[in-house]
Design a protein that fits this description.
The protein is α/β, with parallel strands linked by helices. Helices cover 38% and strands 12% of the residues. The strands form 2 sheets. The protein has an 8-stranded mixed beta sheet. The structure holds glutamine (GLN).
Amino acid sequence: MHNKTIAELTAGLKAGDFSSVELTRHYLNRINSLDEQLNSFITIVPDLALQQAKQADEQRAAGQATIINGIPLAQKDIFCTKDIKTSCGSKMLDPFISPYNATTIEKFNHSGAVMLGKTNMDEFAMGSSNETSWYGPVKNPWSLDTVPGGSSGGSAASVAARLTPAATGTDTGGSIRQPASFCGITGLKPTYGRVSRYGMIAFASSLDQAGPMTRTAEDAAIMLNVMAGFDSRDSTSVDEAVPDYTADLNAAMEGLKIGLPKEYFAEGLDDSVAKVIEAAVKEYEKMGAVVSEISLPNSHLSVPTYYIIAPSECSSNLSRMDGVRFGHRCEEPKNLNDLYIRSRGEGFGAEVKRRILIGTYALSEGFYDAYYVKAQKTRRLISDDFNQAFKEVDVIMGPAAPSTAFNLGEFSDDPITMYLSDIYTIAVNLAGLPGMSIPAGFVNNMPVGLQLIGKHFSEAKLLNIAHQFQQQTDWHKKVPALFV
Ligand code: GLN
């Protein structure tokens, strides 16, 4: 059962081959017996899941089933879930029980989906390896000595290990695409504003975006159909019509114009990863696509730009965790200052503190123009590069990450090298564009992701391009040996 996609499971539910309760039990059993090896879940909610499954079965019996009805899913622990712990991977929020649901959670509830639990993640989504989580690192199902990527590492690992058919993730600088690449699954970061951020704990508000993490592009389309749409409770949500993302999956690739940025194939990219990406692009040529080289001349500025903007926004967003209103509070504070200092000092981990310090510094009087304003200007240059490129091509392709998954502990004391693992994903967030990572091959038994970048609101096109690749190849069907 667990090797089926959402589309196949829905067909099985429809045909009466199994019920949602049976399906949900099956996944809960897998989580119980296998997740000890991975640590991909922070919270499992078996009672709620079985109750939702029962309700979904009743809806189906009454002829009221929607496409995702009765399908078990995992939610990244960054989404507020009513009456259930929402930790964001942090000791700071370990005691936090949300009084309300994020819009994304509400939408899945209304569609009859089942929530299995909340997945592990880097603390406040800051990280590329899932090693900054207060709940301990997640392991990569393809090799338990390696990281799953981050920050949506728990979601990626649980989908790859078939502990859930699909999961949600969020991507501020690559946190859907890089773990999707490392774990051999399909991940889509939608256009900024496509999916509501309401109730999604904020890291860097001008970059954060939620999206689906699935095994196939078709499943990502099904998930996005639920997630996308305007939300008046999110002031940056865009009021743009939501198409049926499954409608055009079969459009032909004939004449598709693919651009390969020369900067993405330069120094820093692992040779064997480059070969996998080149072979994937050839596959598109066979389908009739036309490939040309393009240039994104300011892409070398994206990591430094991001590491001013994201920490600046996080230093502001995280100021609300003060020991008064949310989460962790120190024992016996002597006065208000002591309460702030010790609650925050005890509640936040090292990476989060580093970012708050950088951001507070960058925003402080006298440095604001030199850092924050300058970063906003380079952000515009990076964005203009893409606008220029999209005059010539329909889609940009390249690697999602410079290497396959690295070893646990390999870079945990080396923040700069860790930051560089997002070198190909970050610019997409700075420009607010949609991007995907799809399984494209293996190097030494470890998955490699092909990144697809599209114009604003071109998710349907990206899903079509990804789906066509998955009709020609079976990389997305490979299962990690320990989790068959
Ligand atoms: N790895 C990047 C960071 O640590 C991106 C994280 C993300 O997308 N949430 O900021």
